[in-house]
Amino acid sequence: MMETALTYMLNVWDDLLKYRHRGDYTVDNMVAERAIRPFTVSRKNSLHFSSEESVDVAMTFYTIIETAKIYLSDIKGYLIHVFRELLSGNKNDETLIPSAVSV
Question: Pfam families per the record (predicted)?
């Protein structure tokens, strides 16, 4: 097993060090860590949900909100817009995703 791991490392060693040749690459992965933190915390909290369906609903909301954080500065305005559109009968998902809405 150790031989397999070392062989793999040696085969990809040049790729592992490519970040040193580009000044815009970061050495850490804190951006990714911060992006998944809400999901990690909610995963622990979801143990206390009453059903699998409620977990699915909560994770859908987390996904929508975290995606909206990437594309928009006004999350509350976005959610108000989406709920109003849904209540008025808009079922077109393409027009409701955060990247398609300007709030």
Answer: DDE_Tnp_IS66 (PF03050)
